[in-house]
């Protein structure tokens, strides 16, 4: 299959993300690691720092196991492992929303054992009321004040509005790319789409916007579209390794949409540019349909929307081992899609990736759908 030049560029940006961040730091700028896509990146961008989503792939936990229990999620154990191995030496700051026990536990332990990089805990509300939105706005205001001190720069309302505009443009362009996947023959595979979104999380947004505009111009002119297959949707939290989705697409499916923190939920909704910047950012981030405080009906409705819009034939629930919020949600989500007559498969994974076992289960699921 002849690839789009720009798709290859996104893949290269993702693979060389550490070098991109190191170059940014070398130029005298701050690099901020975001341990979750629920961090309000606009604040970091407005402070002229580079927000980068940390990737937590680790095949062993020999160092992390000295500090975290074995039943902590493999995502946070993996992140602690790569930190202790100093793979993120370019980070000046870590930001962690208080989403779950593992993230809060990690924060407490890291503060005891190290202050490089410095860790900042952003208190994330546990419901979606108007009071919660006001509370989170106050948290974001405190985060803004912290960033001003951290980088030595005043963040004005104009800076915030510019950041909102840049991020909203990135979200609009990513959404346009996703809508192309509704076609009977999607012009981009699920693996490629993930690489595009992941690179957005680690690349300066103005550069990423330029590349997305180019991709949208040329993607429909590909000589060979990705090979078709059973239309699948993948649901889960952060998938930071394209190989995970490659196992699925190599098994006869094509991923036409997703319900992932590292996919559609990262960009689907915009910040209201007419609202006051802090209030608009607060409302946008707490209304992401997720297990971190959202009513379960919001997640069910979001799944139904995606299934209908992208003509999905089956759902794969994909979870990192011991991720409690998603494991608790799956019971209700699995029952809800079953009642809607939507076939689903549940897969739990960790590293090293058991490709053979995963592929066998996906192949059986795809064959059943056929």
Topology of helices and strands:
Blueprint: H1 5-15, H2 17-26, E1 31-34, H3 41-46, E2 50-53, H4 74-84, E3 93-97, H5 101-113, E4 118-122, H6 130-151, H7 157-179, H8 190-200, H9 205-218, E5 230-236, H10 242-249, E6 253-259, H11 264-267, H12 277-286, H13 296-309, E7 314-320, H14 324-339, E8 344-349, H15 355-369
Parallel strand pairs: 1-2, 1-3, 3-4, 5-6, 5-7, 7-8
Give keywords.
single chain; 370 residues; alpha/beta; Rossmann fold; four-stranded parallel beta sheet; 15 helices; 51% helix
Number of beta-strand segments: 8
Shape: globular
Structural class label: alpha/beta
Please work out how many helical segments DSSP would assign: 15
Tell me the count of domains: 2
CATH first level of the largest domain: which class? Alpha Beta
Order of strands side by side in the largest beta sheet? 2-1-3-4
Following the backbone from N to C, one meets helices and strands in this order, namely: HHEHEHEHEHHHHEHEHHHEHEH
